[in-house]
Amino acid sequence: MGAKFEAIEYGGNGEHYCTLSMPSASVYKITMNRVSNGQPENRIERDFLDLGLSKALDDAEAHWRSQRNSVYPAASLILTGSGLKFFSNGLVLDKALDDKMFFAGVLDPFILRLSSFPLPTIAAVNGHAFAMGFVLALCCDYVIGKKNGRGWFCMNENEFASTIPPGMLSVLSRRLNNWKLIRETILDCKRWTPPQLHDKGIVDVVCAEEDLEREAVALGESVGKYAQKGSYGLLKHNYCTLHDEYRWIYQAYLTPPYSSPRRRIETDVFKLLMSEYEVSLNNDNMQEFFVRFHGPKETLYQGGVWKVRVELPDQYPYKSPSIGFLNRIFHPNIDEQSGSVCLDVINQTWSPMFDLINIFEVFLPQLLRYPNPADPLNGEAAALSMRDPKSYETKIREYIQRYALPENVTLDQDNEEESDVEMSDQGSLPSDDDNDDQVPGSVDI
């Protein structure tokens, strides 16, 4: 698939959450390592998902997509924990209950994200999986458990008089295949061993504790081919959103305040205005504005600043936004003259669940971090990146010095040359009113 990358650490608030690595050339691995009570219990709350697992999933997907040539490379992803006692000990319940938007705004979208990830996913369950930890494993396509040592699967909510949130129930009802199994798991709080769940078709592989990673990598290498056509995640996403128990999660994004495009536009633009990004509305129009975007740290674009124009169609978020770089940037997937962007990850997978913050915190940084010279808009940049990497790096720095120094990039709207950038009106959900003669544009997000 291409060169492996160095392991990436994720954390926040003084804690280490997880690590993304590649144990083989076609297998990504997320290792959870959040310590509670002196050991890695990997208990789940907002920051663990937002700053840890979600970012790791985003980076793995971005790296995989950046390797695309005529087809995507074969690849898979393992989710596991460090240590031998816990895979995950479930939610940090008090924090989850105090956070009014945690379940609908964080946990449920994460469940759908992992369940519809575009690569085959493998839960290598290294220890106990309690409550949401059990559900976390079941969000993966394959589950490997230990035939010896610690490794119970248990939904123990009834033991401490708690309910199970609907998003978690949706996974259990989809994966546990009969009422007796559901009753024993949810109501009786049965502590299942991996061999027991293997006999019931829930766990795919059981192995010795010391062979867990080897078995997971071998399985990942054998199933990675299913990701090559690019439809693997879409098939899972459609199944999840159409499955009766998953429908409510998807519908949550189609109900107020999100059912009305106007309300959703106002909500998302307000969130962007309240963020750390510098934003300027064009004549107070919430559907056209400019964002001052800094090159990501530890990339060739660090130190550069770009003025990015954003246009929201009337059908947003069901139709994707358009964006364009107004000052020049040297990048294989960004047209130097028009500012158009070839951003396959967004073209392929735009969903109403994404918002404007995702664009500037995830999608654009990934584009700059992982260029794809096999699908260029700037042929010179693509060729130079493959033929002469040192000259490619030098030219990027030259462009930053000429066009992207922070002191020279403002959000003033009186620059005619900048305002003439071509924008795209195409989106992920085209309407009958689209103009077939539209000007080629920047990014179809």
TrEMBL record:
State the InterPro entries in the record.
ClpP/crotonase-like_dom_sf, Enoyl-CoA_hydra/iso, UBC, UBQ-conjugating_AS, UBQ-conjugating_enzyme/RWD
SUPFAM superfamilies with a match to the protein in the record: ClpP/crotonase (SSF52096), UBC-like (SSF54495)
Q: Which GO terms describe its molecular function?
A: transferase activity
Q: Where is this region: Disordered?
A: 407-445
Highest rank taxon of the organism = Eukaryota
- Domain UBC core, first and last residues per copy: 260-405
Coiled-coil parts of chain: none
Residues forming the catalytic site: 342
Compositional bias (Acidic residues) at which positions? Answer: 413-423
Gene3D superfamilies recorded: 2-enoyl-CoA Hydratase, Chain A, domain 1, Ubiquitin Conjugating Enzyme
Q: Does the keyword Transferase apply?
A: yes
Provide the alphabetized UniProt keywords. Answer: Transferase, Ubl conjugation pathway
Question: Matching PANTHER family, A to Z?
Answer: UBIQUITIN-CONJUGATING ENZYME E2
Protein name per Swiss-Prot or TrEMBL: UBC core domain-containing protein
Q: Which organism is it from?
A: Wallemia hederae
Which lineage do the record's taxonomy fields give for this organism? Eukaryota, Fungi, Dikarya, Basidiomycota, Wallemiomycotina
